[in-house]
Batch of 4 targets.
Target 1
Amino acid sequence: MKKPARRQQSGPALPAVSVPPRRGGWKWWQWALATAALLFVVIEVYAPALGGPFLFDDVYLPFAMPGVEKLSFTEWLQGVRPMLMLTFWMNYNLSGTQPLPYHVVNLLFHFINAILLFLLVRRLLSRAGESGFTRDFTAAFASAVFLLHPVQTESVAYVASRSESLSLLFFFAAFAAFLYRRSEAIGFGSSAIVVLLFGCALLVKEHTAVLPVLLLLTDYYWNQPPFSLQGIRRNWRLYVPIAVLTLCGGVLVWGVLQAADTAGFRVEGLAWYEYFFTQWRAIWVYIRLFVLPFGQSLDYAYPLSRTPLDHGAILGLIGLLLPAGAAIYYRRRFPMASYGFFVFLILLAPTSSLVPIKDPLAERRLYLPMIGLLLILVDLLRRWRISRAQLVAACAAVLVVLSVLTYQRNKVWSDPILLWQDTVAKSPHNSRARFQLAYAYYQSGRCAESVRAYEETAQLTRPDYRLLVDWALAYDCNNQPAEALARLEQAAALEKSAHVYSLIGMVHAKRKRYPEAMTALDTAIHLDPNYSMTYVYRGNIHALQGEYRKAVEEYRRALAADPSNQPAREALAVAESNLKQGF
């Protein structure tokens, strides 16, 4: 008699792609009401930063650069991130350089990403066999954590970090198109949508190039049969074109890394293996920030591990290998948590692996891979055997705490002085943070405090050209012209430029030492005849001596060199008015 075939022990069977029937789910208007309420909470939580100014690298974005009004549409889109620049172009043309609309757009992208994350987690839970309240509630909780977590503040409140939120929007949209396909084998139409959205994500930020790896992992875990390569082979219609696009994206990324000096293999004083060792520790900081979000900082000044033993880097690696092994061993018993752990590592890999980046640790890098940690959290929640009321109460308490922490963090981001004071307090030996605090004091007119902060910066690092020039301006602001001139002369010894000599002329002029001032300004013209502020300072000297006709000529020369020079325009109007009055 023929024996029946032995049944393979493959763990719990996973459902097919089709969505299980709804069981007592919410109606559309209930979802709409919940979404509106959540949007209101988010606006309130991020309100302090919404009204804040541009910060740090925001002032180097195209809309803040001199002569921006003369840029054509194509000039705006030049570079490796045209989709990102397109949104800045739209912001500029709608609202100029008012910070509020830029912050609002960032917040809008963040909110859309939370909705997409809800759809993604809900779909994955359906694949794991969940339905009804458990599926919907845990997916909604994951979305709310993503939305209200304080570690997201940098990615939302910082205008320059729009690259994170906008790239994730296209990334999540492509992933959603993949998960919500109509059949196990993806069709050409759905493949085209995924590839198009993936291309848009790449044109916002290069780290999204890991999407194909995520799709392969997803097919391995959740296609039928689970934990096999059949699903991957079945979706060749997607993987062939996306491989071509990934190759093109890889060429683009390689070109960026070859040219950049803050990321890639040309970062001064940072070898790729040293960065790799450092990331073994940094990854655990990201996990800690997700679980216990305290001690947040804009600039961590994270110490490097020059060897595997330096700062205990090897312990960080062992700590990563152990859960990775557990995730593989228990992948059938805990598929969602196992999948989430590898999603986290894959999405973090572009910034936390072999490619050196000047800053080894930055909170914004958690924005993309947070979904992996949320999937682990979701798996824990769906297995937590407590009553529905207790589950809702516990999750609500978590969200309240996160909201309070995020509100407090946004208050720090509402003002540059508060932001850099917070950073310096957490990294007292961080010279860059002290430099930025000194500059923030100067911009706010707190000149004495600015001078002290620059002095403290000079004790932490060897003063370079930029530090000396800014330090001199702080001295000038604080009515210390002799000290200002001394710093400017030090800067000129390091780098002879029209900028530094024009400032030397300005300080001499304030002391009514006009011959010395004109000599310095002549040197500035010799070095760069197109530097417009030189002519403004010359015009000011003539105006101070009542020579308004000569002053008008100088101001016009300044505007000829730079039509956007507002000080020249204002001074010209005053000088012409004095001429008309016969002065």
Note: The chain has 26 helices and no strands.
Target 2
Amino acid sequence: MVMRKTIFAFSLILVAFLNAAPQKVERFLLVAGANNGGTDRVKLRYAESDANSFAGVMSQMGGVDRANVLRVFDPNAQAMQNGFAELEKRLQSKETGVRKEVIVYYSGHADEKGLRLGGDVYSWAEFRKNVNSIDADVKVAILDACGSGAITRTKGGVSRPAFMQDASSEMKGYAFLTSSNENEASQESDRIKGSFFTHALVGGLRGAADMTGNGKVTLSEAYQYAFDETLRNTQNTSAGSQHPNRDMNLAGTGDIVMTDLRETSAVLTLDSNLEGRLFIRDEQGNLFAELNKIRGRQIELGMPAGKYSVQMEAPSKIWMAKEVQISEGKKSVLSMGDMQSIEREKAVARGNADSTTMTGLDSARAKPFRLNINAVAYSKEPANELQIGLFFTNAQKALSGTQVSLIGNLAMDDMAGAQIPAVSVQVSAVMNIAAKNIYGIQLTSSFNYADSINGLQASSALNIAKNFYGAQAGIINFAGTGRGTQAGIMNLYADSLDGGQGGVMNIARNVSIGQGGVMNIAGDAGLVQGGVINVAGKVEILQGGVINIGGHVGRQIGIVNISAESDHTPIGLLNIVGNGIIDGTFYIDETSRTGIAMHLGTPYFYTVIEYALDPFNNPWPQSSGWGFGTRFGMWGNFFSLDYTFKNVYNENPFKDIDNPTKDNQLHKIRFGGAYKLLPGVALSSGLTFNTLFKHQGEDFYLEPRGGYHWHWKFGDHKARVWPGLYAGFTVGKF
């Protein structure tokens, strides 16, 4: 009996242990992106990139193996059905006894009937049936589309506070998250290059939604964060507020953990002392994440390794950290100490063809193409046409096509195509004006203007673009901000250019790549500045020219190099470096002459400018010259080794211009040291080796006191050679 009870008790313990043992979990992901919703709907720009963005965060932090990710782009109804079939096939091929979780994500067009896939409609009933029939323990469907809330209405789903608050992961059942309710338009934005809902959801999954601070983001936290951010960002758009929705039937304890920061090795920690609206952009300037940060709460974001910039809009100021390096295997912390104070959108409705914001071109493309020829070719509705005007062309609404005229072209709304005015005798009268956005080319013999251009502006005179993505080529190019290249006699950029400038004169506030021309001026010149005269607040790699002036530079190569701070040693005749060597040595040497030697540069390489004479006896001969050297040590006691080449004159070389004074040439190698007495003052002394050639002189003009020296012959040249000494003091920055 005792044995039977013991066995029974052991069996209970074993069963309890087996039940408590963690079960292996495998996740599967089906993502679909559909930009094309049919000819009667606006073609989306970011549905596919949204799907890739969601797949990326789930692969990096959501426990989804890349082999378990299925992608379906711009599908018809059959392709969507095939995607579900392939998903089911992969599920069945996996081992038994594994907890299986499936996530289905769709970004694209939809209405009250279902998903709009090109010319097909994939009904809500069919979509829901496919999700429900998936053989998995947990199924999560996320729909970023207009009217997607209709799928929750079929099961009675209503807006309510976030569901479940436990952080465990033992849920079974399904959950549907939608980007809007059944009567709303889901929207995408050119500013964030994606949809508001997916942008918020992905940012939340990367860690912004982790309200408990445990390094995990649950489905509840992700939904609530996406709801708040989507509503915030759509309150003032032309399509109106957007309210995400959900329906769920989850059984068990806890909540579904969607992402875990431990799954990624590169983390950005936003310190608790930050407070405000933060905008995180990648190295290409794309908005990576956007979130509200309250003081006292630390946030960790899982991010791909790379360089980012962070802008924070605080209640009273705007702050910026221009270079935030995120490295693999590290947690990079951003705090207020890394921020600097700086001086103080349009949306597309997913499915609403009558949206007034950035949708005109899609309406124009949907129209049949036509040829419009007239003295003044004119269109007052969105048009898909070639406009040929004898004198002018005028597109009042969006135009998909080309404008050609003798005098001028006018596009008052968005345009995709080209403006090409013919060359006339009155060159100054020929012009192109795009009052809004142009996607294409402007060519003229005189004047191009575009509020925003994605393409090329080329003229023989003037190009102006408020916002610019492409290239400008002309005598004078002016742009406000954007990406691209300017090439001309004078290039002006008022703000930030993510590209380069090439011309006679280049002026920009900020350039990401570089400037090349006769004269370059920039606040931040990016990677490289090359020209005759270069002026910049910052250059990352190289400033190369005759005269280089910079704040913080990588390296300078030129005749004159001046910088407040240099990462590498400048190479030139005159180098002045704020964080380098700037000092002068006053000395007397073995010839009884007094001299001064200025040292400018860095310890690795400095230039020497030297002048010497005998002020107490005959002031002639005098010598002056230039050299270079290296220093061992910098801020305390130090040794130095340098070489100088000097001309030695026995009389004023400028007294008779027609008969130049003849000179000797002196080559001097000097090794010396300095002993610091006070900050900026040191005793100096050392040894020299001197070689003096007559050159054009009639005799040798220098010799050491006491007359000790040797005469050596180098071919046909005779030289006077002697060792020497010097002593004095050095004054400068050390």
Note: The chain has four domains: 23-261, 266-344, 360-545, 581-732.
Target 3
Amino acid sequence: MNKIQIIKRLYKSYTKRYIKNIILAFIFSLFLAGSTSSVAYLLDPAIEKLFIDQNQSLIILIPILIILAFAIKGLSLYIARVLMIGVSEEVKKDIQKDIFSSLLKSDTEIIDEKHSGKFIANLTNDVNMITNLLSTVVLNLFKDSLTLIGLLSVMFYQNWKLSLIAIIMIPLASIAAKTLGKRISKVSTQQMNRAGELTSYLMEMFKNHKLIKIFQQENYEKERAFKFIENLKESTKKIAIVFVRASPIMEFLTGIMIAFLIYFAAIFVSRGELEVNNFFSFLAAMMLAYQPVRSLATLNISIQQGIAGAIRVIPIIDNNPNVRDINNAKTLKLNSGTIEFENVNFEYPNSKNRILNNINLTFTGTKMTALVGHSGAGKSTILNLIPRFFDVKDGDIKIDQQSIFNCTLNSLRKNISLVSQDTTLFDDTIRNNIIYANLNASEDEIEEAAKLSFADEFISKLPNKYETLIGENGIRLSGGEKQRLSIARAILKKSPVILLDEATSSLDAETEDKIQKAINFLTKGRTTIVIAHRLSTILNSERIYVIDKGKVNSHGTHKELLESSNVYKNFYQKQIDKS
């Protein structure tokens, strides 16, 4: 998209709905322009009548009119600014909502490939640049252009020859501003990228602060942080310098203009072509015009910044996820909950390595099926394909003979719960973390889910019970406590399909026993697929699939695989040795 298309897009999508307030701001800008021009014009009769003719009849009226003009100017500017601030904040809210909505429905690959800190920079810094385009640029365009037109009218009324000399500065200022605008666009993009890098780094540092301490890398991280801060400072400094650079240019041009005007004004006065009162009125109008000319000349810089922000934000808003409902998608209707993989091939986006090769699997409804195999064999990928976190390259996945790609994502995911070893919790209360699975659940249902997952054992010992804040990703809880909350959440959802990704790994024997009991309740009578590393899980499974290098190596019961599969036999022997 070019700059004109971006501005049209911003107007059509965000600004158009607030056009009434923008028109009102324009009207008050007219009052502002008229009152400013009248101040310059009033100097003509003030000097002529009060000082040259010494007419005392106007000694009160003219000062009152000047006071009134300044009052109208101040009030009009205030109202126009309030209106445009309101518009810009509404637009800011709308853009941020659209970015957030787009990110929520984005493909997993989009979120994974970009650090979350950069998305935060898009939501804050870039959006601020865009809204500045409205709150500052649009208002300044209105008030300064109208004021300039009014003041030029006064100047031409007083002396058209001097006015022609004065307006020579305007195109010169525009040329200078255009050059500065190109520079500001480049450094703005650089500055936003570096702001995103700093935000990303800070998030990583806070997340890994224990790791930094245990390996005593404070000095190393300090140097890294200082480098990010230094880079951001340099980019911000460049922007500030480009902005400031406009001042000496405008001062120099103004100085040249005033020198020429005084020179020619003296000639015109000596020839009798210009009265002193007309010259003072003209000079006042010209000096008042300095501010709007300077503002309009530097307007291009702010426009370039806003466009630079929009270039980064609009692609996020316009992103269409690849994983989405097809036209006329049907609601998934579960019976037994049998899941089948038919000739499934898969490779992650932007990767040439195929993760799954011609996979054929059957997960019997209401039963538990285990996936075993070495790390990186493709087990977690199989789980991720069922709720369509990613879509397959080839093949089909069916639930009760219904292709999941022909069903709505909502009806598919509504029937699936996922419990992973990487437990994800919100920086919120225990209650809100459990109820996240079903926001309409009653207090009794929440407490029942906590009891069935054995989470109530530690919740009851906390001072604030279910209202206890657990910190970022449950930092105030142990690994076993977090896992039990995750299971309570899954129990509350009551999904017919359960996906367990090493849910009992890295736990002590007592905690594992409790979590295993909770899992037994969670999975009873439900289609369950479990990535197994524990003997108890393997032995409880009706069927076991051995996954090796993205392929199904073998499958069967525990006894069958001990006899038929060397890969499984070695895997099982390692589990015995560990136990």
Note: The CA atoms of residues 106 and 112 lie 10 Å apart.
Target 4
Amino acid sequence: MTNSFAELEDADCIFIIGSNTTVGHPLVATRIFRAKSKGAKLIVADPRQTQIGRLADLYVRQRLGSDVALINGMMHVILKNGWQNQAFVESRTENFEAFAQVIEKFPPERAAEITGVSADDIVRMAEYYAKAEAGSIVYCMGITQHTTGVDNVRSLANLSMLCGHIGRPSTGVNPLRGQNNVQGACDMGGLPNVYPAYQAVTVPEVREKFEKAWNVKLPSNVGLTIMEMMDGIQHGKIKGLVIMGENPMVSDPDIHHVKHALEAAECLVVLDIFPTPTTELAHVVLPAASFAEKDGTFSNSERRVQLVRKAVEPPGEAKADWEIIRELSNRLGYPMDYKSSEEIFEEIRKVAPSYAGMTYPRLEGEGLCWPCPTTEHPGTAYLHAGKFSRGLGLFAAIDYRPPAEEPDEEYPFWFTTGRAYVHYHTGTMTRRSSHLDQEMPESVTEVHPEDAKRMSLREGDVVEVASRRGSVFSRVQITDRIGKGVVFMPFHFAESAANTLTNAALDPVAKIPEYKVCAVKLAKVA
């Protein structure tokens, strides 16, 4: 996030897109509700009307995969009416002319044709956001999990720069992370193209820095993403795989493909706290400690690094992740002799400039937001004050591209996935709770009332939902939360895994799969 959670309360316009905020991030939602109680305008764009959408001043339902056209339409209106922050554009950005040429192609009438959102609503969205004193954008994986995910995010960055809603309190472009330490994993180099603190592996000086710190020769090439790893196993390029705290047999797209890949691995090692469909395929399962059974740090969506302390000892042979990695590394020939999580953090401070000013004593209490370059620095609540990290903000000229797969005669429905309020992610933890399981014991497929009537479906009927990759069975829930011709399924249920159906087509830049859009057909089961 460019800004902090607390700042949301003082925004006077909040634009939420691709985020089921009350379900996925309820504490963030409370900040948004406080802003609304102070008079902030709340705009929500989502193909499925969630609770946050029902509470919005303006809710719009765009077609799946049409986000770029919607945002471009808003920016066309802003430019046409002269609502942009011209002083910000001229002093803080570049490439505006090329950007404006593309935006000229998206009058609200054309954007309406692509998105299904009325031209009047597109104008209202643009006016609310552009005329705000402090406009904040909040998004989540409903924006990123597309073959155009990078385009979607860059379009939101364009919108914030066009109106000067960035680099100030209560503004910015604010992605909500999908799990509790995703930000920390990325900060520590858990991406194939960077070392810790987002230092590129392709830069010789950076590589030399880490070679010296780690006393090892490092490759100069970018590594593989998750889906590229799965393909690499099947093509014989990868022989072994270590999976930590991840359950790709439920969470990854095209699960049949994932299963074939994991079964083909010569050595599959899985670290987890509970058995999962993924551990069932492992050659070795190493029991890991839970968050309450280890010391360390977590970094949340607002870049806040928080210290956690061991509350109870891990059961049986379970160990903290760093201890497991240390022992694996020692046995594989690269010696590690770390004695504690704090010792590891001291190394992090030396190689990651954004963490340099943090220490365990300083992190006691509320923690610190990076960048925090010195031990006297208070941490950074919001980014890009005065200038962007690259100097001038770069407008990107982004045209609309449709999803990789759209409905046709054989597969006539749009299909999308997401979370339910009861369960978390792949259900590894929440489905072990009898109270939560009683609340939602099985998967449901949401179907619009008109589609249900046309197919003679009743509430609770079982349907087979099939895509070009596989099929699952699920009970029907009839609701107008979704639009006609669209079906929705939560992805928490291994026995009715929504990701059996989803498309593994990748964004060409970020290589993230298109979880949020594919084509399916429904058939009533006797």
Note: The chain has a mean pLDDT of 96.
